[in-house]
Amino acid sequence: MLKKLSFAIALVSQLLPTLAQASTFNCVMDPAQIIQVSPINSSVISKILVDRGDEVEEGDPVAQMDSSVEAATLEILEARAQSTAQIEAQEARVDYVAAQLDRVRRLVAQNAQSAVRLEELEYEYSLAQSQLTQAKNDHTTLLAEVSRARTALDNTIVRAPASGRIVDIPLSPGEHAGQDRYILEIAQLDPLHVAAYLPIDLYPNVTIGMPVTVLPDPPVSGAYEAQISAIDSIFDTASRTFGIRVDLPNSGARLPAGHRCQIELTSPQ
């Protein structure tokens, strides 16, 4: 009986991963994300500045929407903002009333002018100052409108929200694009998300940050070091497996996405 038990233990120990044994599992290398790029405001596409397969960096212009209205609005507001005639007119009025007020105060002190006229000029001076303040506030508001118009014009340029590669352009110049009709798709290829399913027996031994080696299937060659970045906490009952994700650095998109691979890890005892 003891001999049979010893043989069974030895057999099981050969099948289960140990500290020094490497385990290899099937995996798939996917893009980190597929982004459907739409304009901020619905409009007609004027130009598409990229082609399918092009690599783009975050912030690169990828399309130009019709901007005729935004450009005209900005031009009008800038012309109005360049003029300070209203402020200058109110400043001149304040200076004029202030001079009259000073002269009348001297006359009143000499009993050569009635106090009623003094009160009238004091009111006019206060009103002129208020109108000058309003003119300055109006000009400040106008400058803010110019800034908003510039932003609206800049928003007609559609920019890449992330670095990646253009994988689809379903629309063409002249077509209408909006939140429900995207202009193009960008696949973020750095990093790649490598997904694999492991037996639930390994669950206690797999941790975030655990080093792994990713081995792409032919014709892609090489071995690439990475770390586990996510572990599913819900098991698949039918297959008795759980999923893991590895963030594989992919500078320059040297590795293709959508390709099968093998993931190799050394399981702790």
Could you state the oligomeric state of the chains shown?
single chain
- What average pLDDT do the residues reach? 88
Count of DSSP strands: 12
Elements, N to C (H/E): HEEEEHHHEEEEEEEE
For the largest beta sheet, what order do the strands appear in spatially?
1-8-11-10-9-12
Shape: elongated
Individual helix count: 4
Strand % is: 25-35%
User: How much helical structure, as a percent, in the residues?
Assistant: 25-40%
Q: Rg, please?
A: 36 Å
| Broad structural category | alpha+beta
Low-pLDDT segments, ≥5 res: 1-20
Q: Quick one: biggest sheet?
A: 6 strands, antiparallel, barrel
- The rounded distance between the terminal residues' Cα atoms is 27 Å
What does this structure look like?
- The protein is α+β, with helices and mostly antiparallel strands.
- 35% of the residues lie in helices and 32% in strands.
- It is built from four helices and twelve strands; from the N terminus they run αββββαααββββββββ.
- Strands 1-8-11-10-9-12 form a six-stranded antiparallel barrel.
- The longest helix is centred in the middle third of the chain and has 40 residues.
- It is elongated, with a radius of gyration of 36 Å.
- It starts with a helix and ends with a strand.
- The N terminus is likely disordered.
Task: Explain the layout of strands and helices.
Elements: H1 2-15, E1 22-37, E2 43-48, E3 55-56, E4 61-65, H2 68-82, H3 85-109, H4 115-154, E5 157-159, E6 164-168, E7 176-177, E8 184-199, E9 211-216, E10 224-231, E11 241-248, E12 259-266
Antiparallel strand pairs: 1-8, 1-12, 2-4, 2-7, 3-6, 4-5, 6-8, 8-11, 9-10, 9-12, 10-11
